[in-house]
Design goal:
mainly alpha, two-stranded antiparallel sheet, 14 helices, about 0% strand
Length: about 350
């Protein structure tokens, strides 16, 4: 226990008067101080400073991180842009990180206007995609649709408006560009669906799914006697994965389910489930969607089966560890319990 310093009662202790200190007293004190100081300094000169290994490791790590940061700063793509474009983009990113969408959109539009005549394809479309995403987040769906349509036309080099025509010649483009165009097409489908432009939304979804399936197709016959092809998940190019195809199929299935076309939705959900596997929280979501689609067709027994399978998967503690999305499993579990109650009512 720490002790407290308290004032002692009784007779106070007094310091010696300054008059009692004579020059005779001061000189020996000074001589003693100087001698002691010189002796300590001479000992300190011979003493080596030892730095702990942990401190050296931390210093080295800090310098290494600083070097990487400086390299990324000076060698990043944004440093290669013209100064006016670079300044506008930095302001846009700053306000985006501060969640000020109004100013973020303003400066990204300024950067796009400045960059239109100065930049090549990749940085320019990157600005368009970022601006379109911000406009969608801000609720400016019309502007977002226009911006992302402009990005697709710029990437494919065609001044078309129909999704099937824009995505018809993607095979001649590089794999990164194909992947980017398909992603934008999916986003345009989401925006058109939110705007209740159902025909346009379906066209974007279908065009993107058809291109993905066509990219992983092989001839139906090994003898070359027919031009028909079939989708083969083992025949996918390096830039495409089963998850990509499954997500596109699920998005199209969700669109049909929302438009009261459960038979089309079920077919797409089952195909997506076979590609993604039955081991993740997203698979539990699709099982719930399958149960809902079967229920809307009055196939209640089939709906109960899929709802129970989804519930078992969502309640498994290991499911959320697959993609580290345990919150999605928890949310899906609650929805499935409610749906199960409705099915057994």
């Amino acid at each position: 226990m720490l002790k407290r310093l308290v004032r002692q009662h009784g007779k106070a202790t007094t310091c010696p008067s300054s008059r009692a200190l004579t020059m005779t007293t001061i000189r020996p004190l000074m001589r003693h101080y100087i001698t002691t100081t010189n002796r300590s300094a001479s000992v300190g000169d011979r003493r080596t400073i030892r730095v702990p290994p942990l401190a050296l490791i931390l210093i080295g790590t800090g310098l290494g991180c600083l070097g990487v940061g400086l390299y990324e700063h000076y060698m990043s793509d944004i440093q290669k842009l013209p100064a006016p474009v670079r300044q506008a983009l930095r302001k846009g990113l700053y306000y985006q990180h501060r969640h000020d969408l109004g100013l973020a959109v303003k400066y990204f539009r300024e950067a796009l206007e400045l960059a239109t005549d100065e930049l090549d394809s990749a940085p320019l479309t990157g600005i368009m995609i970022q601006l379109g995403s911000l406009e969608e987040e801000k609720g400016e769906l019309v502007e977002a649709r226009q911006t992302l349509m402009r990005a697709v036309r710029h990437l494919v080099g065609r001044d078309e408006t129909r999704p099937d025509l824009l995505l018809a010649s993607l095979d001649s483009l590089s794999p990164p560009v194909q992947r980017k165009v398909v992603g934008i097409a999916q986003k345009l489908g989401d925006i058109a669906s939110a705007m209740h432009r159902d025909e346009e939304a379906e066209a974007w979804y279908v065009a993107s799914v058809e291109h993905l399936l066509r990219s992983a197709a092989r001839p139906l016959s090994d003898y070359g006697d027919t031009a028909d092809v079939v989708f083969d998940e083992e025949h996918m190019p390096d830039w495409l994965s089963k998850t990509d195809v499954g997500a596109a199929l699920e998005a199209l299935g969700g669109f049909y389910a929302a438009r009261n076309k459960p038979s089309l939705a079920i077919h797409l959900y089952l195909r997506a489930l076979s590609l993604n596997g039955i081991k993740s929280c997203q698979s539990a979501v699709m099982m719930n969607n399958l149960a809902e689609s079967y229920s809307s067709m009055d196939q209640l027994e089939e709906a109960k089966i899929w709802a129970q399978r989804g519930l078992d998967l969502a309640q498994n503690p290991n499911t959320g560890k697959v993609n580290k999305d345990g919150e999605l499993c928890d949310e899906t579990c609650g929805v499935l319990l409610f749906n199960m109650g409705m099915l057994f009512e």
